[in-house]
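Ops channel
N.P.: pipeline sanity check, posting one input/output pair.
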């Protein structure tokens, strides 16, 4: 606009230098632009939205818990109760006699069995959940979360794509926190 108002093109270099300096100073003082600042005042954080997309793209294999404790399907309720008491976990993958994924048992399954006064000889295989949502290590968190829908799943078994009954890890709610940490850590290194 200065050129149109003054018709003096000798001002081009000083104006460009002023714009470059002003942009640099603004970047040092604030990461927001005038556009993102307006959105931020309305409660929309564009930077967080970008990070959320990055988190959704994290591969399951990077944040899953490998070597997660498991229980055999032949374990009794008493033994399961002791396992819950000695660990901090609220659920375990259940393996069959061949070491293959059979189901998932949660603390709520044990409580339900106790409420129904199931006998002590009841096995984990009788009370565990058999219809499972599973994940693959090379899938993204977005892929897995889209399959869980509204389900309140605390842990998702991660299986080998070549053998869907071979457990390779567990994706837990804590894994999502780990994904956020991973993205924020990468974000700090790119700043």
């Amino acid at each position: 606009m200065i050129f149109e108002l003054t018709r003096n093109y000798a001002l081009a270099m000083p104006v460009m230098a002023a714009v470059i300096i002003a942009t640099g100073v603004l970047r040092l003082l604030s990461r927001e632009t005038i556009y993102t600042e307006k959105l931020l005042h309305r409660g929309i954080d564009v930077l967080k939205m970008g990070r959320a997309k990055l988190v959704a793209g994290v591969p399951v294999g990077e944040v899953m818990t490998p070597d997660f404790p498991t229980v055999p399907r032949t374990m009794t309720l008493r033994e399961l109760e002791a396992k819950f008491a000695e660990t901090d976990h609220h659920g375990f993958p259940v393996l069959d006699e061949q070491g293959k994924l059979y189901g998932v048992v949660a603390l709520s399954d044990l409580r339900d069995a106790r409420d129904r006064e199931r006998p002590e000889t009841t096995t984990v295989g009788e009370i565990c959940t058999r219809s499972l949502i599973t994940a693959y290590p090379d899938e993204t968190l977005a892929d897995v979360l889209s399959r869980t829908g509204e389900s309140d799943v605390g842990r998702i078994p991660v299986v080998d794509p070549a053998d869907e009954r071979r457990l390779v890890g567990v994706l837990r709610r804590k894994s999502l926190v780990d994904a956020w940490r991973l993205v924020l850590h990468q974000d700090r290194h790119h700043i």
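N.P.: looks fine end to end. The longest helix spans residues 12-29.
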